[in-house]
Every structure is written in C-alpha cells, then in structure tokens.
Specification:
Elements: E1 2-6, E2 9-13, H1 33-36, H2 44-58, H3 67-88, H4 100-111, H5 116-145, H6 149-201, H7 210-216, E3 223-229, H8 234-248, E4 252-257, E5 263-269, H9 275-288, E6 292-294, E7 298-299, H10 300-321, E8 329-331, H11 336-341, H12 345-356, H13 364-379, H14 382-389, H15 393-407, H16 415-431
Parallel strand pairs: 6-8
Antiparallel strand pairs: 1-2, 3-5, 3-6, 3-7, 4-5
C-alpha cells in the first residue's frame, strides 16, 4: 500500500510502485521541528497562482487561453504544492508520495501532444518557484526568531535538500507516466491513422468525421503529390518527410508504409505544384540518395488516391529502368508514354521488334546504334548528338547510315515509331523483373 495525495488529501492506493527517491546528499537528518512548524502558516494558494502564471507564460503560451487546460494545470499544481507542504511538515514520508492528480495532468499533456521539453520546463519553473517561496518563508522566520547563524544555515540546507529530493522523485514519476502514455498514444494513433488511410484508398470511408480528421492530421482538400520510396522504411521516411515538406513549403504531409521496406509520403499544398517546387523536391531526394517515384499533383480525396496510383505506375518504370545513368527520381508525367505502352509488355515487345528489327538485338553494336539513334532524335542534329555522345560528327553520320541500312528505310520514314521503340527497349528487359507494388 502507499499514500495517494489527491487535492491535498492522503488516501491509500493499492500496489502503487513508483521509483524510490534518490539519496543524493547522504544526509538523513530530518528538518528541525521549528522548520516543520513553518508549514502551518505557509500560503499555498498564493504560491499556486504564481506558479500557474509563470508556467502559462513561459512553458505553455499556446494553452494560456484554454480554460480546460488551466483547470488541469491548477489541480496538478495545487496537489503538488500541498503535498510538498505535507512532506516539509513531516506528515508524509517522501517514499510514500504518489501524486494521482499530478500524474493525471502528465497524461493530459501526452494526449495534447505537448512536447516533453515544455513539460519538463514547466516542472523546473514550478519547483524553482516553490524553493523561492519556501526559502523566503524560512528567511523571515530566521530573522523574526533571531535564529543562530549555523542553525539557520543548516535549516536552509536541509530545506533545500528536501525540496530538491521531492522534485527529483515527483519529476521521475511524471516523466515515466508522460513517456508511457505518449508512446501508447503514438502506437494507437499510428494504428488508427493507417486504418483510416487504408479505408480512404479503398474508397470505404466516405466523408471523414471531425475525430477521424484529427487523427489523420492531413488536409484531404489539398493538392497532393505522392512520393513513393521503394527502399525506405516508415521510420526513415518520416524523417525524410520533414525535409521534403520544408523544401516545397507544403502545409501537410502524411507517411504511410506500403511494406516493411517501402513507404509513400503524401505532400499537400494549397497552391500549384510549379516546376521550381518539384525541382526542389527532387533535390532533397537526390541529396538523400534514395530512389523515388512521384505521382502528379491531384486535388481532393480522389486526387489523394490517384496520385498514389500514378506513383506506383512510375515506380514500375523506374525500377525497370534502374541501371547506371538512369534517373533515380522519376515523375509520372515524364514517363506517361512508357506507362501507357507497357500496360501490355508482350504487345510492346512485338512493337519494338517490328520497328527496330536488327537494332533490337542484344549486342554491343545494336546498343551503340540505338544510343546514337536516340541522341539524333533528341538533339535534332548530328553536331549536337556528337557533342552529347562525345564522338566525332562523322562517326555519328556513319552510325546513322548503318542503322538505315539495317532497317531498310530512312530514319525519317518512321521517325515517331523508332523514337518510341528506342524508349521501350530500355524497359523490356527490366520490367519482367519488377514485382508489382502491394495493393493499398
């Protein structure tokens, strides 16, 4: 059994086991009786008001006008201050202290997602203010009673030790309660958030309720892009999402694991996703050294689903393309043609073989001719293609002439078909090795 202090009253609590007080000073002497007697006329209510004012202005400015939060803070501070007075008065042993109201407030802070640094700062403020008030009360008693200097110094030392020991004991309980509840809430919130996202992707949730929106903590009315990270687990993706959000100045982000090793990050903005913004996004991904597939910007809840589907399509192309020199970040809008034509890989293969003929062969010469062909189409001149390939202009001309001989017609005769076939052949060997992304 142990004592529970609730609103200043001691009751019995069954099997409460809290950390033992630390014996930091190796001084077991109790406070002198005349110091204990000072508790009888100590004004707890004035002290509580001072503490609340300081905590709200310094540690909890965002909650300063929240009446419910103030009520919890007042109850906790009052119970804490009354309990310390009881310890100083010798009415309760420190090891028997259990502050139910104070620990309830720690749970409230965890539920409100108040940062632990704010919580810890509030307790530092609280206990400094308590020490300040009790020390002043003691100094007045020493002066009024003309207490001997050595006895006065010893009384100040023992009072300070008592307050600091109480502070450590209570703060340890609070930190343990806050951490336990915060972690439990994180686990439960993460689980509920995943369930909500799964329902949204399956179009089973309809309009979100206010509580569901709070759990999701993401505005579905935004313009979304989905960033699929095929090799990044949820924990690392959550950290990366912070950098992505800052880079593109978006208002919202949401991280959702697809598998144990792949994750999607939705980013939501109110405004347009301009090219410069997407370039900044690519910069963060490239600097992080992670492959990614990015869906197009889509509005609303339907867009939330669509951009993920686009990212998954783009990832199939990126993964098939994955080789030295291939882009590590692929946007759906840049590979729309490949996505469309690779819906049926067998039809695509027949198209490539029909259009490229001998140039579709798996040989060094065929690959070299295809590379030259693509560069010529891309840059529009032999000179520019030669500069890109770091070859002499005559070499490019000779290769293109050789390609025409093997094809049996001029390049301009079926220019569009050749361009498409050259793009597709890069994917055909890899696309069959790429597993489909799991259903959401």
């Amino acid at each position: 059994m142990s004592l529970t202090i609730d609103n200043g009253h001691a009751t019995e609590s069954d099997d409460v086991r809290m950390p033992a007080p630390l014996d930091l000073w190796h001084d077991d002497r109790p406070l002198p009786p005349w110091v204990q007697a000072l508790a009888n006329d100590f004004d707890v209510e004035d002290l509580v008001e001072v503490i609340i004012g300081r905590c709200l202005s310094i540690a909890f400015p965002n909650q300063a006008h929240d009446d419910e939060f103030r009520e919890y803070l007042t109850a906790s501070t009052s119970a804490n201050a009354r309990c310390l007075r009881s310890v100083i008065a010798g009415e309760i042993a420190l090891e028997d202290v259990y502050l139910e109201t104070v620990l309830s407030f720690a749970k409230v802070q965890a539920q409100l997602r108040i940062p632990q640094k704010s919580m810890q700062r509030s307790y530092r403020i609280s206990f400094f203010t308590m020490w300040e008030a009790w020390s002043g009360h003691l100094r007045k008693a020493i002066k009024d009673g003309d207490v001997d200097r050595d006895e006065a110094a010893m009384a100040q030392q023992l009072l300070t030790q008592t307050i600091l020991g109480y502070q450590d004991f209570v703060a340890s309980q609070v930190a343990e309660t806050y951490t336990r509840d915060y972690e439990a809430l994180n686990r439960s919130r993460a689980h509920m958030r995943r369930s909500l996202v799964k329902d949204i992707l399956r179009d089973e949730n309809g309009v979100l309720s206010g509580s569901d929106s709070a759990i999701l903590s993401y505005d579905l009315t935004s313009r979304h892009i989905a960033v699929l990270l095929p090799t990044v687990a949820e924990g690392a993706a959550t950290q990366l999402a912070v950098g992505l959000r800052n880079a593109v100045s978006c208002q919202h982000s949401l991280v959702y694991p697809l598998t144990l090793s792949s994750t999607v990050v939705w980013l939501g903005r109110i405004g347009e996703w301009k090219r410069a913004v997407l370039d900044a996004l690519d910069g963060v991904l490239t600097e992080a050294g992670v492959p990614a597939a990015v869906g197009g910007a889509q509005p609303g809840i339907d867009g939330f689903r669509t951009t993920l589907a686009e990212a998954m399509d783009a990832e199939r192309i990126r993964a098939a393309w994955d080789r030295p020199g291939a882009p590590s970040v692929v946007h759906h809008g840049d590979v729309g043609l490949e996505i469309l034509l690779m819906r049926d890989p067998e039809q695509a293969r027949q198209f490539v073989e029909r259009e490229l003929g001998p140039l579709a062969g798996d040989t060094v010469e065929a690959a070299r001719l295809r590379e030259t062909l693509e560069a010529s189409f891309r840059f529009g001149s032999h000179v520019a293609a030669a500069e890109h390939l770091q070859l002499h202009e005559h070499t490019v001309r000779n290769r293109l002439h050789k390609a025409e001989e093997l094809l049996g017609h001029t390049l301009n005769e079926r220019r569009t078909e050749l361009q498409v076939a050259a793009r597709l052949i890069r994917l055909l060997s890899g696309i069959e090795q790429v597993p489909a992304m799991p259903p959401s």
